[in-house]
UniProtKB/TrEMBL annotation:
This is Pol protein. Residues 1-149 form the Integrase catalytic domain. GO terms for biological process: DNA integration. GO terms for molecular function: nucleic acid binding.
Amino acid sequence: MNPRGPRTLRGFTVIWVVVDRLTKSAHFVPGKSTYTASKWAQLYMSEIVRLHGVPVSIVSDRDARFTSKFWKGLQTAMGTRLDFSTAFHPQTDGQTERLNQVLEDMLRACALEFPGSWDSHLHLMEFAYNNSYQATIGMAPFEALYGRCCRSPVCWGEVGEQRLMGPELVQSTNEAIQKIRSRMHTAQSRQKSYADVRRKDLEFEIGDKVFLKVAPMKGRGTARGRPTRGRKNT
């Protein structure tokens, strides 16, 4: 359940990020930290299942709302398999973690660029992301999902639709989307550079010996109060 933002006038404090593994299309659903698993299930049905149907499987973090008996029971009844990311290893759901980082940068940009609460611009952030080119699929998520390019507000002036919508609305929407997309591209470039520096390609073969870090656990002995380290065959 990430990222977290300042409380808005409507009381929203968190954003539920849902990403399709195939098309990379995403939905940003605002919520409150007080929501129960039942409330998130209602949003899941109205915001995700309503548009895309029931997924075969879901990869999520180990948030208490997603490990609750209610949520597990709901997904079992709908025929969806739940896969949880490994604790302290966010790379298990890497695409969502990367998107969370980009979204956080977009939220900061909106807080500086636009007046009002962040939730009033969240739909524009979602639109800007889904209509931006993604190198991993070679197209925008919108095109991958619907099989055609999205007509954005930037193109409205070319076909005269701005007369129907009103010049002020078109202009303000254009400016907001262009600023958000610019910030998003900057954030993506920064995240890529950071990831490239830290990335280490590791390959292990059967029989290789590796060091295993063991955290101290209750009831387990440690050497002089420190976690024990040892070798482990893969």
